[in-house]
Amino acid sequence: MAKIVVVEDEKSICDVVVQMLRYAGHTVQAFEDARPALEAVDFSQTDLVVTDLEMPTSGEELIQTLRSRGIQTPVLVMSGHMDEERKRHLASLGAQETIDKPFGLPQFLARVKALIH
Known about the structure:
Domain Response regulatory: 3-116
Strand order of the largest sheet: 2-1-3-4-5
GO biological process, one term: phosphorelay signal transduction system
Distance between the termini: 10 Å
Protein name: Response regulatory domain-containing protein
CATH superfamily: Response regulator
Structural class: alpha/beta
Number of strands: 5
Helix content: 40-55%
CATH topology: Rossmann fold
Keywords: Phosphoprotein
Strand content: 15-25%
Pfam families: Response_reg
């Protein structure tokens, strides 16, 4: 299956996301901040980045840095604070997909599957 990097600073949410992805058969690396996640994506064959927005180094900064380095790994953004304008902005930065928190397992895994295939 896919190698996925998860970036989420709320441990309880991160743990649930990691469990869902591992349940689906994926290999997952989890980080609480974007900076160490960038190194993981830089130096490994990552199939998908799943990131929160509101962190010390924001999800937006993560997307911008990935794209500025020429890394085109698909990005799925999760947040409880996204309106349509912000979703368009994230797409313009290079995010392929967004999902609103809270989300269910089927909805989340369907978006992941669409991005890695």
